[in-house]
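Methods, example record. To illustrate the input and output format used throughout this study, we show the complete record for UTP23 protein. The sequence lines were provided to the predictor; the line carrying structure tokens was produced by it.
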Amino acid sequence: RCVLKELESLGKALYGAKLIAQSFQVRNCSHHKDPVSGSACLLSMIEEGNPQHFFIATQDQDLANKVKKKAGVPLLFIIQNTMVLDKPSPKSLAFVQKLQTNQLVPEHQKQSIVQLKEKEGLAKQEGEKRRKRKRAGGPNPLSCLKKKKKTTQEGQEPSAEKKKRRKRKRNRVKAEAVQSVQKDEEE
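The corresponding predicted structure is encoded as:
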């Protein structure tokens, strides 16, 4: 109701916005007799952890920043004709994290765990902080490699000396055989 009253007071420039706001369901607020500004009314409706699970849709940055400081209130805004649901605020994420850890282990069990740790001497004391000591490392593994043998002559490797080259043998035909072949040809 406070938002509608504020839109009425702003005049004909926001008549279209007033018609759109009237098309939605109107919630009763505590300022029925003396209306306050729209943002103050919306903030009062989401007090005490947002029990009615309201979403806040606004383009007002001041109101958006105030809503982000409260846990569990989704925030909607418009960017280039598209409705966008804002990511959860850090306050909401912290609230959910706390709620989940409380559900995992009940409070009386946490207290009994602390008492048992103190009894056994396992409780952490703030004065004692252990530091991890650096241990001396071994030698550089590259320095431990065996040295390579040097070559005997520049450009030649010792393996080249061991290689044997095969020589082709020429088969020389005896002079007598050549003469007999020639005689046969002449005849």
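Annotations derived from this record:
The chain is about 45% helix and 5% strand.
The beta strands are 56-57, 75-79, 82-85.
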